[in-house]
Design a protein that fits this description.
alpha+beta, five-stranded antiparallel sheet, 13 strands, globular
């Protein structure tokens, strides 16, 4: 691999899609405190399981509507908790194909949303942070608000202004020679999970806002530099400084952070990525914003140090806990910043 290698960035898609939603906030098309029913009627009358462990049919009405901020902060009531055995969580896997993204297996957005509308919330809107599903809903929201497919909107408002020329939901035939294979750890050695001509060789029916993008080190660096500069890069304004500040600030209460320990490890969450709020580990810096991807990727910005750190592998993580290699890389980046 080198800096021109194209890789599956998995959940590093989440900050990019959150930024795209914030362009709609800047434009006045989306108001964070307003319900999203107008564009997502499938979510206009959600039900909530009586208790997180209740069966799927033991439900009560939602106390209020789901808002734009609920989706951006991953507190709409949909998604993965730390306990994957809860009955409703099983529906995310079986009905929505949530989990490690395999783009060609997921239904088109309207069908996906219809299935989502039949699944009760795990928590009341705004009550709890849950992982992943809200980012996919954000992708559908963008398409519904703009009338454009998500890939087209991201290209127009994020990728072209930032010259992220190798980022998208598919790898064209003339770039496949630069596209890495993807592996998982087998009993004895690495095992091929997806080849260059596999899932990302054609545009999927459902472009996943939670984990569907491919990109390169330089493209991700451009996105990170834009965030560090308050929404502008090389004279191109992508976001307002206010939107960048909102994205990269912690939204969660201590109780919500604690409940998300499996994923967050005690840190906070902004829009689309984690936000360090303590210094429990050698690499944590208050205000560090970014996330990790299940394909072995990691990208963060540290505003106080003017640093972008990017790690790209194509070996699948085997749990939500970042592997030793990632932690070693973060420690190395922190050591460099202190010199």
């Amino acid at each position: 691999m080198d800096r021109e290698t194209i890789v599956r960035i998995a959940s590093l898609t989440k900050p990019i899609v959150a930024a795209a939603v914030m362009t709609l906030v800047d434009d006045g098309h989306v108001v964070l405190d307003d319900p999203v029913d107008e564009w997502l009627p499938e979510l206009s009358a959600p039900t909530v399981v009586r208790e997180p462990g209740s069966p799927r049919d033991d439900v009560v009405p939602a106390a209020r509507s789901i808002t734009g901020e609920d989706l951006l902060s991953s507190r709409a009531g949909y998604g993965f908790p730390s306990d994957f055995t809860l009955p409703v969580v099983g529906l995310l896997f079986s009905e929505l194909k949530q989990g490690p993204t395999l783009p060609q297996t997921i239904a088109a957005p309207d069908d996906w949303m219809a299935a989502l509308g039949r699944i009760p919330l795990l928590h009341q809107p705004g009550e709890a942070w849950l992982y992943n599903t809200c980012s996919d809903i954000q992708g559908v929201l963008i398409g519904r608000v703009t009338g454009q497919p998500l890939p087209e909107f991201l290209a127009e408002r994020i990728f072209e202004p930032l010259r992220m020329l190798d980022t998208g939901f598919e790898v064209p035939a003339d770039k496949l020679e630069r596209f890495s294979s993807f592996y998982e750890t087998g009993p004895a050695d690495l095992e091929l999970k997806d080849a260059p001509g596999g899932h990302w060789s054609q545009l999927p029916a459902f472009p996943s806002g939670a984990g569907g993008l491919v990109s390169t080190a330089d493209d991700l660096l451009a996105f990170g530099r834009m965030l560090l500069a308050g929404g502008t890069l090389d004279g191109q304004q992508v976001l307002s400084p206010q939107s960048v500040a909102r994205m990269t600030s912690n939204c969660l209460t201590p109780a919500q952070r604690s409940a998300g320990q499996l994923f967050l490890e005690g840190q906070g969450w902004g829009f689309g990525g984690s936000v360090d709020v303590n210094t429990d580990d050698p690499w944590t810096v208050p205000g560090r914003y970014g996330w990790v991807g299940g394909t072995g990727t990691s990208a963060h910005v540290i505003p106080s140090l003017d640093i972008v750190s990017i790690l790209l592998t194509q070996v699948a993580m085997d749990s939500p806990t970042p592997p030793t290699l990632m932690r070693d890389f973060w420690r190395y980046a922190a050591d460099l910043s202190s010199r």
